[in-house]
Design a protein that fits this description.
alpha+beta; Alpha-Beta Plaits; 3 domains; six-stranded mixed sheet; five-stranded mixed sheet
Length: 432
């Protein structure tokens, strides 16, 4: 459990994962949902079912609760919090269940600045440019590999020392027109960077990456509000910059009336998996980062992060620290998990893998599939072997095993895996 800000307060919101797990499975699978507000009602219905199953309420007490989608509908009665209860497994199960059954497509994005870094410099001199090149290459290697540990590999040190000679192009700009601070943008050749990582035996993370949606509640002066660039510009900038430096797209919720009906800050403060995922369905976000942050009188902060993905729920408590370090902890929680799933160890390309794609109805479909596949870093060749009645068959040569290749291909929401996938090849349905 997350406990840096643990209130020891009784509440359904604290252990919602346990209360709703089995009941929600029945409701969601049997009836389906049409949005965050409807899903919220399903969550409450599931909560009732499981509460009755577990005998924690009498039927009379349960049916005093309203099943309307109003923000406070499932908090009329509270259950006693038991610190001894191990809630992690049910929360993991529930988060994965919701993400699998509710979210129809989890669009990944092409990160276009993986091989670029912006480094503050004192002037336009050669010494500062050389320093910017070294720092920039280190940043790029971390982004492309997904791990800061790559910088500790002995094969990387010589590359960093000669970083200036590896700069493909560079330019200067003012960070802020008012401050006059200067920044150097350095760009490196993608093939050279990948070769460095392969030679060092380091992983490579493709530029096609899932975006993460963040719900962060900030408590300051007794008031709790969701973080956004409008409400907390400095904190939002720190978080966005942290994700940008690691090459992961970040999205903030709109915080409009629809979001307000699905989730309010008081509820989100307790980081309840079911409600967080329900509120995130409109964004089709398969990766959700939630957090709570209390600003102390000294300016320091304390709080917790919870990361929800199809793999389950992970938490990280952050003791008293600076705001920037708190944001960094959230970024690392997400990036470490994503990289473990999607980064591929630098290995030589093996034999060709058969890839079949059904539903190819036009040349535009064919061109889109080939272009996208050839743009994936691990794939060195995508060769057509057959095209028959809307089924495209390709021979794929990639520096990845079958499971790794499948995990990357399935980041494309238009490629729906078919049951025929086996150890001999991959098969997908193309979504037009």
């Amino acid at each position: 459990m997350l406990d840096a800000l643990h209130q020891s307060v009784a509440g359904v919101d604290v252990d919602a994962g346990v209360l709703v797990a089995e009941g929600l499975a029945l409701v969601v699978c049997a009836h389906g949902v049409r949005g965050p507000v409807q899903l919220r009602a399903a969550v409450v219905a599931g909560w009732r079912i499981l509460a009755l199953i577990e005998g924690r309420f009498t039927p009379a007490a349960i049916f005093t609760l309203s099943i309307s989608p109003a923000p406070a509908c499932c908090y009329t009665r509270r259950l006693p919090y038991t610190p001894e209860a191990d809630l992690r497994a049910p929360l993991n199960w529930l988060a994965a269940l919701l993400l699998l059954f509710v979210i129809n497509a989890w669009p990944a994005e092409l990160v276009r600045d993986l091989y670029v870094a912006d480094i503050p410099v004192a002037d336009r001199g050669e010494a500062e440019l050389a320093r910017a090149a070294t720092e920039g290459l280190a940043q790029v290697l971390v982004k492309v590999s997904g791990s800061v540990d790559v910088l500790q590999r002995p094969e990387i040190a010589p590359a960093l020392q000669g970083a200036r000679g590896r700069v493909q192009q560079y330019s200067y700009s003012r960070v802020d027109a008012g401050s006059g601070e200067l920044s150097a943008r350095v760009e490196f050749d993608a093939a050279q960077v990948r070769d460095m990582l392969v030679s060092a035996g380091a992983p490579i993370w493709t530029a096609t990456r899932p975006a993460v949606l963040v719900w962060l509640v900030v408590e300051e002066a007794g008031e709790r509000r969701f973080l956004s660039p409008g409400t907390h510009p400095e904190l939002a900038t720190q978080l966005a910059e942290g994700f940008r430096r690691r090459g992961v797209p970040l999205r903030f919720p709109l915080l409009d009336l629809t979001d307000a009906a699905a989730l309010d800050p008081a509820e989100a403060w307790h980081l309840p998996s079911p409600l967080l995922v329900a509120a995130s369905t409109r964004y089709r976000a398969g990766e959700v980062l939630a957090g709570r942050l209390a600003v102390l009188a000294s300016g320091d902060v304390v709080g917790d992060w919870a990361y929800l993905s199809t793999q389950g729920r992970q938490g990280r408590s952050v003791p008293r620290t600076e705001p920037g370090l708190f944001m960094q902890a959230g970024v690392e929680l997400v990036v470490e998990d994503m990289a473990a799933r999607y980064a591929i160890s630098g290995v030589e390309a093996s034999g060709a893998v058969s890839l079949r794609v059904r539903g190819v109805s036009s040349y535009a479909d064919y061109a889109a599939i080939i272009s996208w596949l050839e743009g994936l870093e691990p794939i060195s060749q995508a060769r057509l072997t057959a095209l028959d009645e809307g089924t495209l068959t390709l021979a794929i040569v990639a520096a990845a095993d079958l499971a790794q290749l499948a995990s990357i291909i399935e980041l494309n929401p238009r490629m729906r895996p078919l049951p025929g996938n086996s150890g001999e090849g991959l098969e997908y349905q193309w979504r037009n």
